[in-house]
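QA checklist item 7 of 12: single-chain prediction sanity check.
[x] sequence parsed
[x] length recorded as 265
[x] structure emitted
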Amino acid sequence: MKDADRLVGRPPWILLAPALAGLAFLVLPLAGLLVRAPWSTLGTRLMQDQVLDALRLSLVTATFATVLCVLLGVPLAWTLARVPFRGVRLVRALVTVPLVLPPVVGGVALLLVLGRRGLIGGWLDDTFGITFPFTTAGVVLAQTFVAMPFLVISVEGALRAADLRYEEAAATLGAGRWTIFRRVTLPLVAPGVAAGAVLCWARALGEFGATITFAGNFPGRTQTMPLAVYLALETDPQAAIVLSLVLLAVSVIVLAALRDRWVNP
């Protein structure tokens, strides 16, 4: 017991010094944002039309992107966790590629597939008159592309940790696979789905690279909050700070909502 107490005592300076430097590196920019914020005119600036338009568009598109991620991502996570097939590791790797892929590259990839001259976009345009690039729907697709892996990873982890005995008992009682999934599996993994959806929504709200590449930066149509911050830095830095504060507040709220799952040891 004495050895254990010695291990958890005061850390050596050779470890503590870089730890404090790393903490300062992460916290000081956020503190600078708070210090330089125009608090006296914050309410007025939040009520500006361009800020409200960017905020409204971001909230709407992030919500639609999250719904799309849930509809597509939960079945995908279930398939990866419950269905054994050859190449499952490759599929899992492909699903997580957007996590490490530069968002701008993701936007280029979306253009090559869903653009008017893309692999699928040309057919959609010619057959149905549907175009996604530089539209609000394009913003939703770009956000979905970068955010879905967060949901899939969270739900797959919850599925792997779930007790299979409940599903086996339901199958023994004659329940079909869809009934088992709907009445047993989903309630078991509901916390994982909720956590993944919140992370997915937050990631979609902060998406920049894929959005500006695939959907452009048109006020009121495709200009989300991160894009508005980028544009405001050139014309109105104070407005950029205000928008950044809103995004920072959202990030803090997300972390607070997920504190039991992601923050607490």
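[x] summary fact logged: The mean pLDDT is 85.
[ ] second reviewer sign-off
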